[in-house]
Amino acid sequence: QVQLVESGGGLVQPGGSLRLSCTASGSIFSSYVMAWYRQAPGKQRELVAVISSGGSTNYADSVKGRFTISRDSAKNTVFLQMSSLKPEDTAIYYCNAALLKVYWGQGTQVTVSS
């Protein structure tokens, strides 16, 4: 069983930055594919960014060049650095871990508004 705990969400003005963190329990964190998803009100959950166990990354077109996903296996933590935030980035952001099973965190709210 893997437990994921997100932190770092909040209210930020357009153009601002936030860094989300997701800390995982368990001893094989380095083997998991880790990802960030988001869900805006009235919309489906969508993939934002993913990082493989080897460090390869992929991003949604809407966040390319603005968001960076990274992982620190020593701390069992995956990060999402978000810059140049836009109001349309407002959503609940969820951490996801996948190996033989898929695990989700509880989500953290990000609100981009002036």
Distance between the termini: 40 Å
Shape: globular
Determine the structural class based on helices, strands and strand pairing: mainly beta
Give the H and E element order: EEEEEEEEEEE
Residue stretches low in confidence (pLDDT < 50, at least 5 long) are none
What oligomeric state is this? single chain
- Rg, alpha carbons: 13 Å
Helix content range of the residues, please?
under 10%
The count of strands amounts to 11
Instruction: Work out the strand percent.
Output: over 45%
Query: Average pLDDT value?
Result: 95
Main beta-sheet strand count, sense and barrel state: 7 strands, mixed
Explain this structure.
The chain has 114 residues and is mainly β. The chain has no helices and 11 strands. Strands 2, 4, 5, 6, 9, 10 and 11 form a 7-stranded mixed sheet that branches. It has a 4-stranded antiparallel sheet with strand order 1-3-8-7, with no helix packed on it.
In short:
The chain has 114 residues and is mainly β. Helix content is 0%, strand content 51%. Strands 2, 4, 5, 6, 9, 10 and 11 form a seven-stranded mixed beta sheet that branches. A four-stranded antiparallel beta sheet has the order 1-3-8-7, with no helix packed on it.
Give the SSE map.
Blueprint (H helix, E strand, L loop, with lengths): L3 E4 L2 E3 L5 E7 L8 E7 L6 E6 L5 E3 L7 E6 L4 E6 L8 E8 L3 E3 L3 E5 L2
Parallel strand pairs: 2-11
Antiparallel strand pairs: 1-3, 3-8, 4-5, 4-9, 5-6, 7-8, 9-10, 9-11
